[in-house]
Inverse folding.
């Protein structure tokens, strides 16, 4: 599919009803994907998605749109590979062009420890169904001719892992595709309605109190990014989440083609080229927990320095714009999905800096959880109670910050 | 301009010189000792508002200081 065949997106807005089977709080990718899969896979359409701003206005519109599955532990590789597969078929399924483009992701190593990590990553990926190879510096140069293999003399490229299915997609098109698909099947999506409290029967959650009045529901699902601690608090759930800002930026137009996604876990930066030709760069989260969308000069300085170390051509480009998202960081750098211990309240959260790539699989699995009332096997390791059970999902492969 | 923290020894310095130190706050309504341990290790109050926190001036005088900061806009208050 391409842009020349594109049709107008059909979004139908309806008035909120007083009662639904399922209320999803948060109209970003995760919430809308769950609504979409509830409608398409399970025939549950008496569903409302509540968004306090406009759909996709939160972290779904503030990420760097990387899709990958090259994680470091089996549970994560399997989960994200499911997401990669769903993304690949999403255009055909929704008949919408989401600008999905398979680019290949190179994770370069600059030292002995880095080489070990990338070798381990390739082995774990291969063992659990994701295609990642360990490659030599010469192969890196072939995939990415712009790279300086000496790393400015400081960070030589000694090897890399190459993740074949690393790709990007247009973030708001993903949101709209899911929103349209869900709305066509009867799901209500309500913008500019904030949740101000929970309706409760004892400890049980029976609905939400909103700026448009109370709405009762059999299940309330939080797909909130950013303010999830406050929402969970209304339901009486404590979360292992700290909110950190994450900044990213794009340069002006680079006139040549930069094919792959290049990441350096040691230098803590990654870069890809957008469809417009801008070079898109991201780095690590800000150290202070904060809900501020403020941006800073320090990140531009350090990330540019790191990027130029490997890609000297970036020196000639100018930074065009910069933005910030608020990431829900979990202590083990893995998402939190499933039951919360409070009846009627389930959650998909802890999406930190890896939320965009998880949208389809999280939506599909959470829809299955709502429809069947049981935790699907794929997301069972990511339950909230893993912290109390001391079964955390710490994953070195998730670092790389995107 | 990046966010600045007032260090009692060094004056106003950019936030990049400091490392963050959480003060764990287990809510009083959690009474079970095991649940309190889990909460202290893993859970965060993560308030959207003013909180008291500790910072370590790593690239400076290497001393700890206490700061009150609004997490919504990073305004520091005494």
């Amino acid at each position: 599919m391409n842009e020349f065949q594109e049709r107008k997106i059909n979004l139908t807005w309806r008035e909120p009803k007083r009662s639904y089977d399922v209320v999803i709080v948060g109209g970003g990718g995760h919430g809308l994907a769950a609504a979409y899969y509830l409608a398409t896979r399970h025939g549950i359409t008496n569903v409302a998605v509540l968004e306090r701003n406009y759909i996709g206005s939160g972290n779904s519109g503030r990420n760097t749109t990387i899709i990958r599955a090259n994680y470091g532990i089996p549970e994560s590789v399997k989960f994200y590979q499911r997401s990669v597969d769903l993304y690949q078929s999403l255009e055909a399924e929704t008949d919408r062009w989401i600008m999905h483009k398979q680019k290949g992701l190179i994770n370069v190593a600059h030292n002995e420890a880095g080489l070990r990590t990338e070798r381990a990553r390739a082995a774990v990926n291969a063992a659990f169904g994701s295609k990642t190879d360990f490659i030599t510096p010469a192969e890196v140069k072939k995939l990415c001719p712009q790279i300086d293999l000496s790393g400015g003399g400081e960070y030589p490229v000694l090897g890399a892992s190459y993740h074949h299915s690393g790709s990007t997609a247009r973030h708001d098109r993903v949101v709209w595709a899911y929103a349209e698909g869900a709305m066509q099947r009867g799901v209500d999506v309500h913008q500019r309605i904030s949740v101000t409290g929970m309706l409760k029967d004892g400890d049980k959650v029976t609905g939400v109190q909103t700026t448009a009045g109370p709405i009762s529901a059999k299940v309330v699902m939080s797909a909130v990014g950013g303010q999830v601690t406050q929402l969970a608090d209304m339901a009486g759930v404590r979360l292992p989440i700290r909110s950190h800002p994450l900044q990213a930026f794009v340069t002006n137009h680079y006139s040549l083609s930069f094919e792959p996604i290049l990441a350096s876990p040691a230098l803590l930066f990654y870069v890809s080229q957008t469809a417009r030709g801008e070079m898109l760069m991201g780095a690590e989260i800000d150290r202070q927990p904060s809900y501020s969308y403020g941006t800073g000069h320090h990140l531009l300085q350090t990330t540019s320095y790191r990027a130029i170390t490997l890609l000297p051509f970036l020196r000639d480009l100018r930074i065009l714009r910069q933005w910030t998202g608020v990431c829900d960081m979990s202590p083990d750098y893995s998402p939190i999905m499933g039951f919360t211990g409070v009846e009627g309240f389930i959650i998909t959260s802890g999406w930190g800096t890896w939320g965009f790539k998880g949208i389809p699989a999280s939506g599909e699995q959470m829809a299955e959880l709502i429809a069947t009332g049981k935790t699907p096997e794929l997301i069972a390791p990511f339950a909230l109670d893993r912290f109390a059970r001391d079964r955390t999902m710490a994953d070195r492969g998730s670092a790389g910050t995107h | 301009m990046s966010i600045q923290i007032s260090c009692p020894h060094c004056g106003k310095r950019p936030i990049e010189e400091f490392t963050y130190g959480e003060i764990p706050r287990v809510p009083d309504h959690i009474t079970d000792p095991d649940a309190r341990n889990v909460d202290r290790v893993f859970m965060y109050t993560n308030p959207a508002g003013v909180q008291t926190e500790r910072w370590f001036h790593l690239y400076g005088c290497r001393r700890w200081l206490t700061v009150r900061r609004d997490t919504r806009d990073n305004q520091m208050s005494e």
Observations:
- The longest helix of chain B spans residues 33-42.
- The interface with chain A takes residues 1-3, 14-16, 18-20, 27, 30, 34-35, 38-39, 41-48, 69, 71-74 of chain B (CB under 8 Å).
- The mean pLDDT of chain B is 92.
